[in-house]
Amino acid sequence: MAREKKITPMMQQYYEVRKTLPPNTLLLFRLGDFYEMFHEDAEVGAQVLGITLTKRSDYKMAGIPFHAAEQYIGKVLAANMKVAICEQVETPQAGKLVKRALTRILTPGTTIEDNQLNAQRNHYLAAIEYDKSGFSLAWIDLSTGEFRIAHDSKPDDLLPVLVSIDPAELLLIEGTQESWQKQSHNNPVFEELIHFANSRSTSEQPSFQFDCDSGAQAVMETLGVINLEGFGIEKTHDALGCAGALLHYARETLRAEPKNLSSIREYSAKASLLIDPATLRNLEIFKSTRGLREGSLIDAINGCKTAAGARLLEQWLIAPERSIPELQRRLDSVEQFFRNPMGATELQATLKSVRDIKRILSRMQNRLRNPRELGGVRDTLLQIPELKSTISEVASSSPQAGSAVPADRPTSPLDQLLDRLHELPALTELLDRALKEELPSKLDDGGYIATGYDPELDRMLSLTTDNKVWLTELEAAERERTGIKNLKVKYNGAFGYFIEVTKSNLSLVPENYIRKQTTVNAERFITEDLKAKEKEIFHAEENSKRREEELFLGLIEAVLEESVALTQTAEALAELDVFCGWAEIARRWDYCKPELNDSDVLDIEQGRHPVVEQMLRKDSQGLAGSHAFVPNSIGISASNNQIHLITGPNMAGKSTFIRQVALITLMAQVGCWVPASAAKIGIVDRIFSRVGASDDLARGNSTFMVEMNETANILNNATENSLIILDEIGRGTSTYDGLSIAWSVIEHLHRDPETGPKTLFATHYQELTQLDKHLGRLENYSVAVKEWNDDIVFVRQVVKGAADRSYGIQVARLAGLPTPVIDRAKEILERLESDDASVTVSSPTPIPVAKPRKKIKVEKDENQLGLF
Ligand SMILES: Nc1ncnc2c1ncn2[C@@H]1O[C@H](COP(=O)(O)OP(=O)(O)OP(=O)(O)O)[C@@H](O)[C@H]1O
User: Fold this and answer.
1) In Å, how far from its chain's centre is CA 320?
2) Which of 469, 674, 705, 849 registers the highest number of CB atoms within 10 A of its CB?
């Protein structure tokens, strides 16, 4: 009979913890100064972290030093895996098994450690449920305490916000992904959801965790309220199930209640400007088509000096507004700083020394505390009085820069900001008095409480310093007594304090020295006196360390008592940062304050593309602005000139123009000033785009399929308050199919006799320009070029009227196509345009007999047009 292998008590402890963990989790098991992984975890860990795999008795092991654990954990999370931390929870004693406990599970969406978060970006964990009642969504940022829910019967209306928040981790009900796969056939919503789930860490959870009633209960308990009315949320809100799932997951991973959640807000698609996922990508709102921040709108309009400011900007772009009063408040606030550049610059300089209070608070509330972050609270609070007085000065100065400050000033849009900035003098004074100037980042390092703050600590510390003096004196005295000139009193972790005598002096060692250790060149001794003193020193050090930690916890408590005021202050600081940044960008790039109204008109004078303009300026450094952006105006209204059909040569600037109109509208609806000389923006409910040809092979879609999916989405969801930009629709298929689709799309958008979504339609189909004769609200525009001999010069000016030709061959020549190819193309074009398929052109290869271009004649036929 095989003898059963005996498991050591420590490994028993390990297996107990290991069996409770969720799948895809690596267990880091603390053994002294290392976190060890065993068995399969060790194999996976060694591979993911690039560390050595070793074998101990009959199991595999891999370890990482505990002090460098954070960087290794970051790598595991980046590989979309979870990390469970099992710590030693008592001081180890020889011969006794040390107690261990699972203290935390870190997952991609719940980590709150500073070095695992991107300071400039929000870090969300989201839960989704999609059933008969519609689409429910909840998301949480444990690193800041933001908590939101949303429900909509139309999933299309919540996809924009889901894609924009870009959660690091997603919770779904068990079996969800499989059911989405089954339903995805030709259903763009499911396709988008599958793609979305595949591109991030996803955990499927049992369905009871998504139960609405228990979700409501969990939310109330976590927020410490008896109902949710104070947050404007019904107890029966459909997304409370998702919210409950998030809380359950957060509790499981933190191994405690999340302590930094104090409110929950509902996101309403109806109150927001919606930008569907395709348009977010096409307009390069959060990242460029190359997947980088550089080249995106958010990058172009980010003038923030603090990470919290950058995160607020992201939140505002995630949910652009439709509420004019809120947008007006933002625009007016920017104006104050725009008109007071000195004040704004001063504020920005001060903001640089402000710390990320929201994230610091979240960590403190969830038991991750260190002296340096506590010092961050102090350093920030110390700036508040100065910040407030500068803001007051800015608020007091009249809109005309340089004019006198009125004694009794009228209310200012900045008053609201001032009210939310709390000085908290008592807490500031306490932290200032209690903490040293320079602070360690680890609590264990000690030495962070200032001298004079606590007499008891000072007494204990003086004991240890006195003891150290005693040791120096002992060294001098023993040298004197023994005559050993190089005798040293030293310390190491294994033996504590000892006297070291080199081998050559051993004959001089007195009798009371007790030999402890021999090294290559010396012997180490102790004495009774030295041991007694050592005990005294250790005792004093331990006591002072304990006392210091007690004081530290007292300070943390004092900070947490003010967490509401501190959170408000942090939020106000973030706003201040966004406003000052926008004012600076507005000055640097000559932006204007848009006028907002609820009309159906967009009226932009001398508008520019915010990103292309900045790129051109960068590229033209040293060329005295020879590549300056050419501004263009537009006046478009849903009830008057609803559809602008824009033709013009390749490379003329059609796409840039239609995108800039969409971006300017979006910028106005987040409250930012806009790149134009004047702009009147009638609030829009949605921006749609069908731009460029991008295939989506990863999702199994061809270029044309993507194009048609996006077009279908637009036609099904656009309202008369929407803005649509369509770029070369129909180009992904044969000319006639494409032209016919483009044509009927225009007719469809124009079908209502009174009004329709404002549409900018860029096309190379010259035939469409004739539609203006029959569609009353369609106008032709073109991007002008100048002809010079056989060449063209781009002037980038949008003018009224249709373009006469495409100049594709001239542009191809500019692109460097070989001359014979260009000449041949011209020949072919002439033949095709001659309408005569029978003409033989002398050429190396016979020209394929193409179907001649049909002339299109437009005839009035009630609502439809005739094709001949
Ligand atoms: N108003 C402008 N001022 C200066 N440069 C511009 C302007 N508009 C466009 N450009 C430059 O011209 C380039 C081509 O513009 P764009 O892609 O908009 O042309 P297009 O007419 O849509 O071309 P195609 O029909 O081939 O797609 C842009 O990359 C940009 O650098």
Assistant:
1) 16
2) 674
